[in-house]
Structure formats: C-alpha cells, structure tokens
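idk why but the lab printer keeps eating my pages so im just putting this in chat instead. protein + zinc ion:
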Amino acid sequence: MHGRAASPERWHTWPITRREVSARALNLCPCAVFAPGPGEPPVALNPNGAGPVATHATGARTRIILSIIVSAIFVFLLPGLGVVGAGLSVARQIVAPVHVALLLTGFVGTGLGITIGYHRLLTHRSFDAHPILKGILLVLGSMAVEGPAIAWVANHMKHHAFSDRPGDPHSPNEGFIHAHWGWLFDFSLIDVDRYAGHLARDTVARWISRTFVLWVAIGYIVPFAISGWEGLIWGGLLRQFAVQNVTFAVNSVCHRWGTRPFKTRDRSRNNWVVGILGLGEGWHNNHHAFPTSAFHGLRWWEVDLSGHIIRILEAARLVWNVKRPDVEHIRRRLFEPAAAPAYARVTE
Ligand SMILES: [Zn+2]
Ligand SMILES: [Zn+2]
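predcted complex ->
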C-alpha cells in the first residue's frame, strides 16, 4: 500500500498548493503539522497514474512517520483502548446505564454526521440544508474521527470515480485488510480541487474542516464530563471504534459480500448487516447505482435510518431539493427489471 510513496522516481516534480499537501487521503492530524514549511520543496505529483495522486517530496520522511504514528493512535490505539476498557468494566460489573446511553447516542449521533452530513449532503449533494443544520451535521461527522470533512469528501469522490479499478483508494481488489484499514496508512495525496472542487467556496465546510481537531477533542470531553473515565471509554473511545469500523466495513465488506440487484461498473454490494449497523450505508450497490439519491435503502425492508431522518427533516422544511431516482431510471439499471415496482416507494 506504500508502493506509490516508496517509488519517488516514478513521480514527476510538480508544484502543488499547500492546501493539497495538507489534504491527504485521510488526514487525522492537524493539517498544518504535515504541510510543508516555508521554503520547503514541492511534493511530487503523478501525472500518469489513474488519478492525480501526489506524494511527499524527499525530506518529508519525518512527516510521513509522524502521520503513521498519529493514524495508528486514532485508528488502532484509542479505539482499542475503548474495546479493552469496556470489556474490563463489563468484567468488573461497573457498567451503568449512562455508559450504554453514551455509547448509543454517540454512535448514532456521530454516525449520522458521517452518513447524512459528510456523505449524502457534502459529497453527493443529495439535498440542500439550512446552514445551521449543515454545521451541526459536519461537527458530528468530525467527532467520528474519520478526517476533516473536505478531505473525506475528496477521498470518497475518488472512490466513486475509480470504484474497484486502479486509482480507487480502498478497493478490496488489493485485499480486504487494505480496503478496511490499510488504505488509511497510504499517505498519497488527493487532488482536492478536482475531487472536492464543489466545496471551494463552502465556508461552513471549510471552517469545520480547519477546526477538525477541536471537534474531535469535544467528542472526548463531553462523555468525560458526563461520566468520568468510564464515560470517556464508552461514549468516546468505544463509540469511535464502532463508528469507524462500521464506516470502514462499507469500503471492505460492501465491495465483497452481498447482493447486486443493480448493474454497476464496480463490485458494490448490498449487505444487510452493514445496512442496519451503518445507518443505511450498507445498501451500497443501490448507492453506486444512484450516487446522488438521498436514500440508500430503496425497498421497504432495506432499513435506512439516515434516509428516514432525511424524510423527517424534509417534512420539517429543514432540508429541501431532496434527490430520488425515478422508477423508470431504476427499471433500466436493474438486472431484473420486473422487480422495479418494489422500488416505487422511493419516488413518493
Ligand atoms: Zn463503494
Ligand atoms: Zn458515496
């Protein structure tokens, strides 16, 4: 997974902006820490690859090592402490209802920040939202510790552009572990102008992305303030483990196991387990067939909590221009067009 970064001779030197440097595939750190300092050389950009991915220049090794350490802390160490800590509190029989409540509310709250805020609103523009609601969703998404919103969007747009082909940041074609965790340690760069250019003038998304670390910290401080160290373990670290790994499962599991009712140019699948746990995101073949649809669950039994909440927000006029695929469009994409009537409800 480090092949691109390990072969600098393959890369052509190219000026690249500070902003592009700071927006790695998944930047879990304060961006400025890893951006080049004044007078430092530009990074290299690969003009021949599947996507405009760039890597750090020679001399940036320290930053890459720091990136690996920081990512390992936030992807493995802290979530792992959450799992171990929660296991110990179960063994010692000191789990209180408040701990479970912190876990569940934190899971659903920050999870919806990712599914509704980062993914359906910001990435795919499936609907328009009041700026205050948008800000709340992006703050909640930031607390899930999956990187600043704009970097997440750029990375995910690249996934849609190259799904399961060279250039896809996290296809299981390169192995399940790569798709789930490994790609997080590929510190190639994403061309933000190309993949998240639609956010160039989005002041809400830009400000919340710049202040990402603040929201991550608040995501730990709030459960700690409510219930001390046990609160931090359940509502902070274990919650982070759960949300991160369910999101990662969309990338790994949902491109390997499940059903494919729709013709798409990738290996996306509908997986009902990830559909439920992922608050609707596991209906991933549906999503690849209709990326701008605000609803991923398209039949009545395809549980899509995020979609249901978008319906409620639409009824409350807090979101509008909600996108839905029409039945004829659905019929054309189905392997079995006769099944189209079962999808009719999404157009309502
Ligand atoms: Zn996908
Ligand atoms: Zn998507």
